Amino acid sequence: MATETMTINMGPQHPSTHGVLQLVLELDGEIVVKATPHIGFLHRGTEKLSEYRTYHQIIPLTDRLDYLAPMSNNLGYVLAVEKLLGITDLIPARANNIRVIMAELTRLKSHLVWLATHALDIGAMTVFLYCFREREEIVDIYEKVAGARMTTNYFRVGGLSEDLPDGIEPIIRKFAEDMTGHLETYEGLLTGNRIWQKRTMGVGYISGQDAIDIGLSGAALRGSGVDWDLRRDAPYCNYDEYDFDVPVRTEGDTFARYKVRLDEMRQSIRIILQGLDKLKPGPILADCPQVCLPPKKDVVNTIEGLIHHFKIVTEGFKPEAGEVYVGIEAPKGELGYYIVSDGSARPYRMKVRPPSFVNLQALPQMIEGSLLADVIAAIGTLDIVLGEIDR
Amino acid sequence: MSKQVVEKLKANFGPLVLGDAEYRGETTVTVERSEIVKICTFLRDDCGYNFLSDLCGVDYLGRTPRFEVVYNMYNLTDKTRLRVKVLVEEQASSVDTVSGVWSTANWHERECWDLMGISFNNHPDLRRILMPADWEGFPLRKDYPLQGPDREPYQGRLS
Q: What is the pTM of this model?
């Protein structure tokens, strides 16, 4: 009997592709023979646009890369510009402290959406509702801190746009303390669940060596036994002053990545609580008048302050010619910014290294030879966001 | 650490290393375009740069050679970074692919071709990746207007 393969299309309008990802799948019965991802449906030309904007005007563009983790994108970008300016050591301790707290809240927020949608794709509806309940609390904290729920635009080159509002610390602390219990709830629903185990164990396997070769980073790499976390290995924002573990598992399958991310969330809670304990009053912007905006009270009360504000807003600042690459541990992996300056007020070239873009590249390798139903699990476990893949 | 790698590269490849620079604690080495695969294989196998973080093209319009292809690599064992560059002329804008050295380079090189118009010899699958397949032109080039080829050039915010 002759057999022939069938080519089917999945996406870009498909709820399980987490955005506008199109997959062309060649199937032999229910087995995937070949998978070809097509991306670019959300391409907005962020890198081109940034060549026409001053350094401060680019921060809102970065919010829209990985829109599930806006603060991490802001953080990577401002760290790169600070390195380009050579002012990394001038950032006040309080600003770094708040950056760490917000970055870890962002990690929790991003992982909550990952867990919610990943579980929903595989059929666990309840977890979705629970995760979004907790995510809502983080978004509320965002709103109180930055004024926006998703596109926060909170960090600035040199520090933060404003200090934490009064009374927010107990709210963050209460949330972090409650979160430990919530994680137990999620694990109670999933970890020992036989359906969950059958849908995830051994699915989407990738070995450590292959994972390095294809460029996986973040939890996807740590699930394959490679112990690498940029917060520990190349500390930024004083991460070396915090006490946390880097969870690693060696199985390299979807279940391992699930466990790694959940353990990571526990570590994030630890870091947030330590960050709150460390929090001391102090300035939130570096003492760097050529880069940072003056305090608002100076702008409205003194002519010098007004001129200063005006000059920075209209002209921006001019880093000397040079180039830097800064990578941070974003929720989804290594988020890198490569910025080339030609000495003008705008970057000559800005290249974003989005973790999802590189992680998605591993998808065909993970699913070829497995069942069609496992494609859904593999997309979920890679934790992709098309906003940063397409840029 | 990166200094030793530069010395090692110079000792092994001599004239193929065109220059090196240090800026903000980051090391950049410029090497000869024709031998990039050999040099990258050496860096991966003998210097431990087993992780290619990023690969991108930069357009220096008005300079000869016009383009640069930049490889940002990472050593997972001793946690150091290294940046390698090759210079690419406008007329023969092509570089040998390094997707045989790190398979992650596959999509990065496709993106570089798509947006910058630098082609990669022996690439397994050199198609456009972000722009539509029938797109004309290379948007990230400096002579490509921000608002697209058929519209008035962007005039705003010339401060």
A: 0.90
